[in-house]
Fold:
Amino acid sequence: MAKRIMSSRLLSLRPISSSSSTLNNNPTRLLLLPSTTVSPNLLTFKTSTTAAAAATDDPTETKPKKKKKSSKKKAREAEAIKQQQVKEKRRTRSDKEYDDSHFPRLLEDNEDHVPVMLPEVLDVFASMSLRSFVDCTLGAAGHSSAVIKAHPELQCYVGMDVDPVAHAKAGPRLDDAISCANNPNLRAHLVLKNFRHLSSSIHDLHPGLSHSGVDAILMDLGMSSMQVNNPERGFSVIANGPLDMRMDPQASLTAQEILNSWPDSEVGRILRDYGEESNWYLLQNKIVQARLRGGLNSTSELRDLIENLTRRTRGGRQGWIKTATRVFQALRIAVNDELGTLEKSIHSCFTCLAPGGRLAIISFHSLEDRIVKQAFLNIIGRGDGDGEESSGYMEGSSKIRGDNGPKDAWIRQIVQGRNGTILTKRPVTPSEEEERLNRRSRSAKLRVIEKLR
Ligand SMILES: C[S@@+](CC[C@H](N)C(=O)[O-])C[C@H]1O[C@@H](n2cnc3c(N)ncnc32)[C@H](O)[C@@H]1O
Structure:
């Protein structure tokens, strides 16, 4: 019998340390509302060419100068094409058809979250008979619901998230998925904890599972649309709100504390290392100077500081928005210790896998993707190679390609190692159609590792 659901509301009130619950088959139906995932942090703008246009309109400009400018432009264009080609080479674009029956009705309810690369995630687990599945980043349960529906053989499901808002959203949706799957043997649990506690959580919930291992684990990193689109959470570059940025509302560190009381050099380090912001030193100084005037107390104060500084140094809206996006990203990563947590958790997720089990991770920026790629290589004992160019890896790829059934046709090139196999030598990226319809997906990269059978 499927277990009875626990109110997600109740769940959100539970203390973090003991917050797990068991889902049931509550007949309450979920109405899938129109949804959106426009993330202000990922806004892109048309390239401004005003300065160049003004220069060519100058009647005093001589011909040779013009020639020089156009050859510079050509060189820039050639460089951009070259970089694009390198990018393409280093990834495998999904050729899956965009199947919007997997998606909630698109782009109207900005309270909702559209799962990224859903058909590709379903593909990762399609060839497996799943007894157990752990979603480390429950969010609105878009991925979880689809996996539950696609695997009626599932016996144990665990959904983890640090954010009670995610649990409230996911609860009814999971109920609905469990009813649809008509799977009376499924035991489903929600855990309001950081995924770095995955191993102990599984052990507490299901000692048997901790022993046999989990068949499938998913991490879909970053923020949900429910988080970004609520100004009160402080993630939005555009809407004003408190400088919070905590995914776990019980955590003590906020962005405001970092900006107003951390040592100058630490503020600078965060901007440089987590935001990859070239203007980090100037920004660090402005942030520290703002402390003399009472500090920064809202996202719009931070945004104004960035806008004032960047308009002067780089010019234009595009410049300051991009800088603001990098600064907000840096603060969010620091507040939630995202990179440290990810690095440690990948290893513990792999340890929790059953033989032949798969761990799939979707990342959204290069810092995360680098960690995933390197951790996978380290796990299989190939950490010293670059993992992408060695010809040795190609032998493995042809071998597994021959063995693949149609359900594993998505696997292209692999990296084989001692303890397992990386099934995505190059990360899979969203289809063009998905990128067009869901801007948030544009930076997504999916990597998958399989434990030795
Ligand atoms: C991109 S959303 C996941 C969306 C989900 N896959 C879906 O289909 O609706 C990421 C979620 O992971 C959660 N999260 C991020 N880091 C976490 C961590 N270290 N532990 C637990 N949850 C985390 C966030 O609170 C957020 O709800």
